[in-house]
Design goal:
It is built from eleven helices and 14 strands. With 410 residues, the protein is α/β, with parallel strands linked by helices. The strands form four sheets. The chain has a seven-stranded mixed beta sheet, sandwiched between helices. Strand 3, helix 6 and strand 4 form a beta-alpha-beta unit. Helix 1 packs across helix 3, helix 3 crosses helix 8 and helix 4 packs across helix 8. The N terminus is likely disordered. Bound molecules: pyridoxal-5'-phosphate. The site of pyridoxal-5'-phosphate (PLP) has 11 residues, from helix 5.
Amino acid sequence: MTKNALCGCCSVQGDFAKIDQKRSGRASFESINYQESDLVFSLGVRRSREKMNRVYNFSAGPGVLPVPVLEEVAKEFPDYHGCGMSLVEMSHRGPVFSQIIRETRDLLRELLSVPETHDILFLQGGGHMQFAMVPLNLLGAAAEASYIVNGVWSKKAAAEASKFCRVSVIGTPSRAQVPHPDSINVPNDAAYLYYCMNETVNGMEFNYIPQCPDCVPLVSDVSSNFLSRTIDFRRHALVFAGAQKNFGPAGLTVVIVRKDLLGLAGETCPTMLNYQVHSEAGSMYNTPPTFAIWVANLVCKWLVSEGGVEVMDERARLRSKLIYNAIDSSDGFYTNTITPSTRSRMNVVFNLREEALTELFVKEAADAKLVNLKGHRLVGGLRASLYNALPVRAAEVLADFMADFAKRHG
Ligand SMILES: Cc1ncc(COP(=O)(O)O)c(C=O)c1O
């Protein structure tokens, strides 16, 4: 998809124009007419008029969102496009939100080239709920599912699945590495093969699609690299992602599932955990997270206006390369033990040769407005999460900071 391309599936051109206008600084918050007593909003608007003092945010999630999206939300929040109320005060079954959820589905379908064989569901409960929903919905009559375990999140998913079935583990859980493709042997009668495409905590990303028999559905947790690269839906039967990294605020989970897999859940599967129920209700079986879906809708439009998922992939490679280069050229001052071909483009984990300097690194970085660089509590060290909305400039500044820190403390 090219920059400023008109999305064929919905009328988003007006919104691109608006977002572009805001990016060029021509639009302002002038049109919002508040009483001075509307304290929170008027303060927010006044602050937005001043130059924003945003930091470079390397948070692993919730993560950084595109500024034009945040500005659009701020502008339209109290009076959504002249409706006289905010979007979060409206019925989810009314025409305004119905259009937003429909459009968001269409935009995602277009951005990721999701074929009609797959449905797109907007759910809640995050990745953790998917750890249970996947087996509850896909096991059918099978007794076993295969899980590639190569990091914190796939390990957790496998543990949850073991409550429902026998789990056959592929990989060496004690040694977090993407397994060699030849080591993946999945029996024909496995209910599915599960893998986590990008292990957020361990900083590794699959550089190949795991092979399994045609009759075995392939399932992937794409929470932390969603919308940063294309996904082959001829090979993937189901992917899911918590929104709070590359797609929007926390509270929304996307599931993209092959339609012929709907309806396998057993009688005892709780209604709210049944994909078929949500599919038949157009993701409106219960009240959906309307605010999160609105923001995700704007993120989709921003992605289209930036050139789409391929452009995000290029930027992700560029950003991560800057940080990996800073690590590799530091003469061991910084270390990263991941096999280079499976280093994550989204979450760069690294350590300091002298571990005692870690706190100082985090503090000095924060003083330089480079924030949220502390590693996950389970593995320690440092982690720079480089999601779609993070400017490439942020990675350049961090790489410079790392070189300078190494020079001063090496
Ligand atoms: C790859 C991956 N899967 C699952 C999860 C869990 O997501 P949630 O907190 O939305 O349940 C995370 C959280 O960071 C993640 O990075």
